[in-house]
Each structure stands twice: as structure tokens, then as C-alpha cells.
Amino acid sequence: MSLIMTIMLIASALSLVLIVVSFWLPLMTPDTEKLSPYECGFDPLGSARLPFSLRFFLVAILFLLFDLEIALLLPLPWANQLPDPILTVSWAALVLAILTLGLVYEWIQGGLEWAE
């Protein structure tokens, strides 16, 4: 079996497992808090001129960074068809290492803490 078929089989099996588990796990007990509209942590009926927390921007930027990282690493399984696949995998590992070091730095500095 080729590498591409193996990756597609694993991705399909993992997707199927996650879909099945997502239907079995949630507890369907709606209450007033769950049914109320939610806008970025603010009360939707209050004033619209409240100061906005920069922590939300930090989470959004972290999400974008790791979303872009996934987009960069998505074609990595096809690297075995390149003339030098080791170089491609090395660059991908370098990108992952830099992102991981940045995340660890933010974590140590307390940038990911919600409560101060």
C-alpha cells in the first residue's frame, strides 16, 4: 500500500472515530445560560463601549499562527516524492520548533494566563 493511501486511510478512520464520539459524548441539558447569546465574553445587553481585553487578541493571534502552521505542514506527506525529502522534513521540523519555543516563551512569561 502506498504512503498516500495509508495517510488517507488513517485520516478517514480518525475522522470517523471523532464524528462518532462527538455524537456520544455531549450532554444535552440546555439551560438559560447555554441558550443565551454569547459575544466575546461581554453581556450583549450592556454598553457597547466597554474596554476590550487584549487577551482576546492574543488568543486570536495564537490561533492564526497555529492555523498557518497546519497549512504549511499539510503538504508534508508528499515530501517523499521530492528529490531531497530529508531537507523538506528538516525545514518543517524547524518551523515546528520555532513555534513551540514561542509558545513556551509566552507560557513562561504568563501571557496565556486569564486571571492576574
TrEMBL record:
Core subunit of the mitochondrial membrane respiratory chain NADH dehydrogenase (Complex I) which catalyzes electron transfer from NADH through the respiratory chain, using ubiquinone as an electron acceptor. Essential for the catalytic activity of complex I. It catalyses: a ubiquinone + NADH + 5 H(+)(in) = a ubiquinol + NAD(+) + 4 H(+)(out). It is found in: Mitochondrion membrane. GO terms for molecular function: NADH dehydrogenase (ubiquinone) activity. Keywords: Electron transport, Membrane, Mitochondrion, NAD, Respiratory chain, Translocase, Transmembrane, Transmembrane helix, Transport, Ubiquinone. It comes from the Eukaryota. It comes from Spratelloides gracilis. GO terms for cellular component: mitochondrial membrane; NADH dehydrogenase complex. The gene is ND3. Coiled coil: none annotated. Its EC number is 7.1.1.2. Belongs to the complex I subunit 3 family. InterPro entries: NADH_UbQ/plastoQ_OxRdtase_su3, NDAH_ubi_oxred_su3_sf. The keyword Ion transport does not apply. It is an enzyme of class 7 (translocase). It is a multi-pass membrane protein. This is NADH-ubiquinone oxidoreductase chain 3. The chain crosses the membrane at residues 7-27, 52-74, 86-108.
